[in-house]
Amino acid sequence: MKIVVLCGGVSPEREVSLSTGAKVASALREKGHLTALVDSALDITADPESLFTTEPINNTASIRESAPDVAELQARGEFFGRGVLEVCGMADIVFNAMHGAAGEDGTLQSTFDLMGIKYTGSGSKACSVSMDKTVAKRIMAPVEGVTMPRGVTLLRDDFDGNELSYAASVLKDVGIPMVVKPACGGSSVGVSIVRSEEELLPAIELALSYEPKAVAEEYIKGREFSVGVLGGRALPVIEIRPKSGFYDYKNKYQSGCTDEICPADIPEAVSEEMKAAAVKVHEELGLSAYSRTDFIVTEAGRVYALEANTLPGMTPMSLLPQEAAAVGIGFNELCQIIIEESMNKYDRTDS
Ligand SMILES: Nc1ncnc2c1ncn2[C@@H]1O[C@H](COP(=O)(O)OP(=O)(O)O)[C@@H](O)[C@H]1O
Ligand SMILES: [Mg+2]
User: Fold this and answer.
1) Are β-strands 2-7 and 34-39 bridged in parallel, bridged antiparallel, or unpaired?
2) Which residues of 196-205 are buried (b: 16+ CB within 10 A; e: fewer)?
3) CATH numbers and ranges of domains, the chain
4) 289 alpha carbon to ligand 1 midpoint, in Å?
5) Starting from the edge strand earliest in sequence, which strands make up the sheet with 178-182, in order?
6) Residue 307 known to be catalytic
7) Catalytic member of 187, 192, 251, 288
8) What is the pLDDT, as a whole number, of residue 62?
9) Ligand 2 is an ion; residues with CB less than 5 A from it
10) Residue 349: what pLDDT?
11) Percent composition of the chain: helix, strand, coil (DSSP 3-state, to 5)
12) C-beta separation of 334 from 242 below 8 A
C-alpha cells in the first residue's frame, strides 16, 4: 500500500508526535509499504512521489533536523504546510500520528472526510465527541458496566467575576478531594488534585486558563490502569505506577518516572470488568480501529473510567503498544493491524 504517516503539527505535543511518526513509518516500511513520513506543518519541497519509499528510516531523516519552534509555526495561521494535503491525497490511507488538538479532536478527520482521504483511527464525529470530557462523560456515564467519577462542568464565562462564590458552589457540589482538569486537554496538562479548600481557586483558574471549559470531579483514590481496544477487542490491562505523585505530564513522558506493568497484577474479575468497560466505551462513543480508556480502581475493587483516548500514544514504549506486545503483537504488526482495521471502517456503510 501507499501510506502517508502524518506527524508533527503545531500542538505542544509536536515533539512526541515527530518521534511517534518516525517509529510508525519505520514499522510500515519494514512491512513493505511505500511510506512517506510527512510533517503536517512544513512545506513539501521534494518531488511528492519520491517521498513514498520502503527505504529504512535512519533516525528522523525525512524530518528536518532543526524543527522550527511551535510558536513560529502557529503564527503562520495555517495548519498544513504547502503541498501536505496533496501528498496525503496520493496515499491509500494516512496514518494519523498526530498528538493532541486538531489532529485528535475531529478537525483533521473532517478535512480528510471532505477531501475523500482515508485515515487511521476514529471518524470525525466520534473524535469530536470524545475529545470533550464533559460531552464524552454524558455518553459514557449512563452505560451499564461503566462507572465514572461524579463531577460538574466549569465554564469560564460563569467563573469570571464570581470567583469566590463560584468556587464555593463547586466545593459544595463535588467536595474535597477533587480533580480539576481542562475539558479537552490531554497529557495531564492543567490537571490539579485539590486536597484543601485553598487549593480550589488556583486549580479552577489554571484549568480555565487553557480552555473556556473544564471539569471538576471527585478524586478517586486507587491504582491506575489503562486498557487498549484493538479491532473491537480489549488488550490486556496495563497498570501505571508513577514513582511519586499522580500520572502528570512529567510522569507520562520522562522515562523512568513511572512503572508500567502489563499484564497488570490484579484479580481476573477486575481485569475482565475493565476490559468489558473499555470495549463498551469504544462502542458507545463510536470509535474505530483502536482506542484506550483510562481507569482507577479503588482498594475495595470498584472500577472507575476516567476518559477515553481516541488517538492513543504510539511510540513503541507507549501504553497500547506495550499491551499489544503482551499478547505477542509486535510494534510492526500493530501498525499493520491499525491500517487494516482503519480500512475496514470505510467498508461499513454507517461510518
Ligand atoms: N477523578 C480522578 N481521580 C483521581 N485521579 C484522577 C482523576 N481524574 C484524573 N486523574 C489523574 O489525572 C491524570 C490525567 O487525567 P485524565 O482524565 O486521564 O486526562 P488526560 O490524560 O487527558 O490529561 C490521570 O491519569 C490520573 O492520574
Ligand atoms: Mg488520560
Assistant:
1) parallel
2) eeebbbebbb
3) 2-119 (3.40.50.20), 131-145+221-344 (3.30.470.20), 151-218 (3.30.1490.20)
4) 24
5) 151-155, 213-218, 178-182, 192-194
6) yes
7) 187
8) 44
9) 294
10) 54
11) 40, 20, 40
12) no
Q: What pLDDT does residue 25 have?
A: 97
Q: Which amino acid is at 138?
A: R
Any idea which ligand is nearest the CA of 248? 1
Main-chain phi, psi angles of 266, to 5 degrees: -140, 160
Backbone angles phi, psi at 207, to 5 degrees: -60, -40
pLDDT tens, 20-65? 999 999 999 999 999 999 999 999 999 999 999 999 987 554 445 5
Residue type, 316: P
Alpha helices in the chain, H assignment, sequence order: 14-30, 48-51, 70-75, 84-90, 107-115, 124-131, 133-140, 156-159, 163-174, 197-210, 249-253, 268-284, 319-326, 331-344
> Tell me, what's the pLDDT at 75?
80
Q: Which residues of the chain have pLDDT under 70?
A: 59-69, 348-351
Which residue has the least CA distance to atom 15 on ligand 1?
A: 188
* C-alpha cell at position 134: 464533559
Q: Is 310 helix (H, G, I), strand (E, B) or coil?
A: coil
Q: Which ligand is nearest to the CA of 246?
A: 1
Atom of ligand 1 nearest to the CA of 252: 25
Instruction: List pLDDT tens digits, range 218-275.
Output: 999 999 999 999 999 999 999 999 999 999 888 888 888 999 999 999 999 999 999 9
Report pTM.
0.93
| Residues present in the chain in total | 351
How far, in Å, is the centroid of ligand 2 from the Cα of 294? 6
